[in-house]
Amino acid sequence: MTTSTARGLHRPTLAIGIALFAMAFITWRDASAMQIRATYGMGADAASYFVALFLAVMGAGHLIAAFRWQDDPGPTDWTAVGWVALGLGSLIAAIWLGAGFIAGSTLLFVFTARAFGRRAWAADLALGLILASGIFLLFNKLLTLSLPMGPVERLF
Amino acid sequence: MESLNFLLQGFGTALDPMNLAFAAIGVLLGTAVGVLPGIGPALTVALLLPITFKLDPGGSLIMFAGIYYGGMYGGSTTAILLNTPGESASVVTALEGNQMARRGRGGPALATAALGSFVATLIATMGLAFFAPMLVKVAIQFGPWDYFGLMLIAFVTVSATFGSSPLRGLTSLALGLWLGLIGIDQLTGQARLAFGVPNLLDGVEVTTLAVGLFALGEALHVASRHLFNDEKPMAIRGSIWMSREDWKRSWKPWLRGTAVGFPIGALPAGGAEIPTFLSYTMERKLAQKPEEFGQGAIEGVAGPEAANNASAAGTLVPLLTLGLPTSATAAVMLAGFQQYNLQPGPLLFVQHPALVWGLVASLFIANVMLLILNLPLVGLWVRLLKIPLPWLYAGILVFACMGTIAANPSVVELVMLVAFGILGFVMRRYDYPIAPVVVGLILGPMADSALRRSLQMSLGDPMILLQHPGSATMIAIAVLALVAPFLFKSLARFRQDED
Lengths: 156, 499
Description:
The complex is a heterodimer of chains A (156) and B (499).
Chain A: H1 11-32, H2 44-65, H3 78-96, H4 101-115, H5 121-142
Helix pairs in contact in A: 1-2, 3-4, 4-5
Chain B: H1 2-14, H2 17-35, H3 41-52, H4 57-82, H5 91-102, H6 106-139, H7 144-161, H8 166-181, E1 183-184, E2 191-192, H9 198-201, H10 206-225, H11 244-266, H12 273-286, H13 299-322, H14 328-339, H15 346-351, H16 353-374, H17 378-384, H18 389-407, H19 411-429, H20 435-457, H21 464-467, H22 469-498
Antiparallel strand pairs in B: 1-2
Helix pairs in contact in B: 1-16, 2-4, 2-16, 3-4, 3-10, 3-14, 3-18, 4-5, 4-6, 4-13, 4-14, 4-16, 5-6, 5-13, 6-11, 6-13, 6-16, 7-8, 7-20, 7-22, 8-20, 10-18, 10-19, 11-12, 11-13, 12-13, 14-20
InterPro entries (chain A): DUF1468
Domain DUF1468 (chain A): 16-148
Transmembrane segments (chain A): 12-28, 49-69, 81-109, 121-139
């Protein structure tokens, strides 16, 4: 206990505190720009002011806590987080560029499996493709939900 | 007796073959997700919302309730055999249950968990059927000021009791309230925090937030950690039947756990964690062999598991009668009601009695189904734990994103989903509770409009909140619940200084 107290500021807590202040500021600015007024009682801006104040108080709490909290989140495998992020990014890109749901989901599947230590790219690619196509057929044809279409989906 | 009549009619609805099928699908899905690490009942219901949009409301709600109950049963299996509790309510079960499994008594541990869950759910669901109509009679006279007071209590208890510190819990709540502000205000049409983005004018979808925080956040978190912890599920050894002594040591903890769990779940006191911890401490104090605690005492599984399930059923009381969600799953189920334009609350019992009582009756049926699924068939579920983690999480992510895209096919929605996923990851990493964010998003706008309607009725006089005894009491309770932890803490520190 005594060894860790001397380390000074807990950086993540400090960063979260500053982020909370920033959100409070944005909310306050947004509230003060509102035009519509209520006839009686509170308008739509009152809740915004309240939340801005609440966020600011929490931000202040974090600034104080940054001097006290010392807990370390433990070892982190950032490469794995990066692979999952790449998977999610690929899905967004695939939908954005009109490559369709199946292509995006297959990439998401493959990259996430890689994040958890799989290296059998071909097998995972095949499995992801089967899963994504299955989902697409089930939901687009059976439940008539509209999943984004790309060149692959138009073949069905 | 009136409610008994309604309940009998409800069984008529619930025994309809279609509804029985929905209940069966619900409990199967619920048990599966409860067993699988990383996905809980809240996430499953959130994933199913867009898919069930076009189905019959009664059947879908029966299915959601089955998932909710099933998730509670299945969670104990993971906690006992894997020592990684699927949801926070099973943390305590893992303490003794995993020790029992390590000592070759996994079978009896699973059995007492399943039977305890059955007894607790049975009693608690009877409690629901009995108390809900009484509460409805009171709630029907509630004004907007009373609802505002109730929501204040829910805010405080949900955020101050979850997680490791009140500051973290309240920060999560503030985030949820902030997200709740986004979009067009219902009463005046004023846009709040939309920044000119058209997609934001409709507000943040509860399902997008829940799926992002729970599914994506959890996947990112587990990915960041899995290199460093490698838990292998244990095989069930020994008979799954309990010995005479096991029975003797289990039945009292079941009943005590139920007695603790149901009221705490039914009050807007948030979460199943508190009753499970309370029950664990209680059993430890009352045990005839306290030295066994920490080394696999069966009471330490029986009591908390009963408390867990009783509080899950109890949570349905405020959800159905007041429209007040006090847990993440209840919050997502509320979104489920709303997608069919049904508003839970006293009026639901008046306007849709067949639906409500069919739902309550189907809870009894789901409970019986779950006992069968979890006792003789528990070996089947354990196989689910053998799905390789890479495929499991890859599959979860594909399903999670699919649900969001299907509900709202836009890139903006998908970007928001990923942003919420990163938020969920950061919150897990630094130990912030997730549930207050979801509850804040749902209850925030409701509290806002309840307060403003009260003020419109009083022509702007805020004293209206204190002039009504109901709302005055509830606001006092909320303030007490907010201040009490800080008081106890400084009191404890004061005493420490004295020593």
